[in-house]
Design goal:
362 residues; alpha+beta; six-stranded mixed sheet; 12 helices; 36% helix; 15% strand
Amino acid sequence: MWVAKRLLSSIVLKGHYSLFCRPPSPLPEYELRFLHCTFCRRSRIMVSGFDTLNASISSELCQGNDKPLDSCYTTEQRTVILQRLNTATESELAQVKLLRGRKAVNIIDYRTRHGPFNSLESVINVPLLKHKSAVIVFDSILKPAERKERKKGKVHLAKFIRPEVDRAFLEDASSIVSIVCGTNKIAWTHMDRAKTVLDWQQAECKSFMKGTYMASDYLNDISTVLSSFPAADFFVVEKPSISPQNTSLYPVMVHLRTVEAMLFALLTSAREPGSPPKVLNMLRTAIGRHFDLIVGDCRTSGAETVRKMMTESVMKRDPRVLFPHDLVLKHRNSFQMSSRNRGEELCDALLQAVAFFELLQE
């Protein structure tokens, strides 16, 4: 403790331009803070901490929820933040930290209903945006260059793609076919990198889960469906999330694994050394998390999300997904709540394709 006291004495007595005395040159205002002594935790040493030119953007200043957000930023910084929040499109907002997905949509909806934001404090009225998350968003708008870039290389095996593929191959893909298997049908979506739906279909397979699961019948049905598939850089097959420990769903799990294995066998062609596999698995749970469809341990229906995408494709200039007019007319009633067959496989195939390209952009 005596070391700390002597250090403090030497600082205070250092002279006119010591730590607590301001030199003649203009500097930002100092703010006194306390540091705990390393020898005695109960003793506190007062030091001056001052902000740099960017320090009025500081999460440190706004850590307390009781401090107004507008007081943490200068007039110029508030202008920059509000201009971005009031004029950015959904895709532009998604580039800001924490604003990907639902938060960006909520900001657009709030602007439409209540008009532009007139203060930083009003931003926390947006659903899912609270004081701490708002500070992170504001700092990201003011200092976008400091956002950490994700490492290039291989997509993490456990994240959403199996087998492991070099990320560069995935990013170079011009289009994919997303495939989802159900208990009596197979659905697929052909989508390009711009998230334009090129084809969107499903086909019934009459032999599925009938009798003794005859391999020859399965093969005939699956081969017929595959003959309708377009050419693509990758075929992405949904990886079911049914646990083997759930014995009541064991017949369904066996069926899905059988179809999955046949799809891999029939779609995989001989490839040159160094080239990536053309058939991939995508984890169903990862897609559910991407679209906020996970409730507890279960994934809920994405029909409402797909209906919204189709509506935006018709009504918005810059939709999340672009549907050709004929596909909108064809499937506009496929996901009605009152319908006995709501087209869940069609819905899941589309969401898987969208998630594939959006996750690669992160």
